[in-house]
Amino acid sequence: MRASSRARAYGLLLGVVLDTLFADPSRGHPVAGFGRVAARLERAAYRDSRLAGVAYTAVLVGGPAVVASRVERGLARALTGSRGERRTRCGAGLAVTALTAVVTWAVLGGASLRREGRALGGELARSDVAAARRRLPSLCGRDPSVLDTGGLSRAGVESLAENTSDAVVAPLLWGAVGGLPGLVAYRAVNTLDAMVGYRNARYHRFGWAAARADDLANLVPARVCALLTCACAPVVGGSPARALRTLRRDGRRHPSPNAGMAEAAFAGAAGLRLGGELRYAHGVEHRPELGSGRRPGARDLQVAARLSAAVTVAAVGLSAGLAAVLAAVRPAAGGAR
């Protein structure tokens, strides 16, 4: 295995461990810092046009990705030294592993996602709807004031499903394929989509580029997440076959080309029925129903969090294996030339 890719695989694994142990800090998170920079640039650069949005997205995605690429290339060059430079190569390898681990921790959101989902489920189980409404914005952008226990439960389960893809599977796969630039660029795209990727009056044109970039970045990861969810269905007492049938039947019914894949797979795996009316700050949306089971209740948030954890473990193994395969293939391809 090529040393840089081996270090990358180790870094991804260690990054998931860091996320599991420490989750996201309440203050000083790098992604929150990026969000503040993006908000300032938006205030300066906003125009009601797609061209302005394209430039805004290109600067905020391309800039960090270029910096990460230069750092990784510099460390990779140190890894290709001669045998007499073993100390230098060892130090560079440890640096790649450590830096990849820290960046992976920064871009992942799985531990915080599961923690918030379980806490929401606990509040609903205690019939503390007021506390659950206060917590929901940490999971999704719906208006919690109009949601009852069932609506809050459904919102939480759907958020756990979608964000298992967006905040866990996708960054791990992009890290396996693209290393530090892949991790950084993906998180930048996903963050910008959450900030400006809305179809409302302000962002319909300006946020178009961020929304389309996020759709493309998640096209493959969302489907991988859905398949991993089907495979992990027994963890929550579900059937992989039923989950796969639900995915094939309902996955494309969602207006998002990606969110419906994860949500349909979660619905099938857990025996639930998701979708229906959604209330956001920008208005009401009506979504097709996904799955043919019962409507989610408070306890299903614990089930969804457990399923998300199982998918995370599977995604870690897949991404590390993918990094190893790419490491074996690339030197061979280079030798063939």
TrEMBL record:
InterPro entries: Cobalamin_biosynth_CobD/CbiB. GO terms for molecular function: ABC-type vitamin B12 transporter activity; threonine-phosphate decarboxylase activity. It is a multi-pass membrane protein. Signal peptide: none annotated. One of its GO terms (cellular component) is plasma membrane. Pathway: Cofactor biosynthesis; adenosylcobalamin biosynthesis. The chain crosses the membrane at residues 92-113, 168-189, 303-329. Converts cobyric acid to cobinamide by the addition of aminopropanol on the F carboxylic group. Belongs to the CobD/CbiB family. This is Cobalamin biosynthesis protein CobD. It comes from Parafrankia colletiae.
